[in-house]
Amino acid sequence: VVVVVVVVVVVVVVVVVVVVVVVVVVVVVVVVVVVVVVVVVVVVVVVVVVVVVVVDVVVVVVVLVVVLVVVVVVVVVVVVVVVVVVVVV
User: Fold this and answer.
1) Rounded CA gap, 87 and 89, in Å?
2) Kindly report the CA angle at 41 between 36 and 45, in degrees rounded to 5?
3) For residue range 13-58, what is the model confidence (pLDDT) as tens digits?
4) DSSP assignment of the chain, as one string?
C-alpha cells in the first residue's frame, strides 16, 4: 500500500513538473515570437518612413532645381530680348 502511494505521488509530481515545463516553454516561445514580430514591424515601419522621407526630399530638391533652371532660363531670355531690343533701337 505504501509503495502504491509513493508511486502515485511520484507519478503526479512528474506529471505536474512536465506540465509546468511545457507551459513555461510555450509561454517563452509565444513571447519570443511576439517580440520578433514587433521588432520586424518596427523595422519595416522605420524603413518605410525613411524611404518616404528620402523620396520626399529628393522630389523637393528636383522640383527646386527645375524651378531654378526655369527662372534662370526666363531671366536669360528676358535679358537677351532686352539687349536685342536696345541694340536694334
Assistant:
1) 6
2) 150
3) 999 999 999 999 999 999 999 999 999 999 999 999 999 999 999 9
4) -HHHHHHHHHHHHHHHHHHHHHHHHHHHHHHHHHHHHHHHHHHHHHHHHHHHHHHHHHHHHHHHHHHHHHHHHHHHHHHHHHHHHHHH-
Distance of alpha carbon 4 from alpha carbon 19, whole angstroms: 22
Q: What pLDDT is recorded for position 37?
A: 96
How far is the CA of 18 from the CAs of 10, 28, 31, in angstroms?
Answer: 12, 15, 20
Tell the residue number behind the cell numbers 507551459, with chain if given.
Answer: 23
pTM of the model: 0.52
pLDDT band (50, 70, 90) for residue 9:
very high
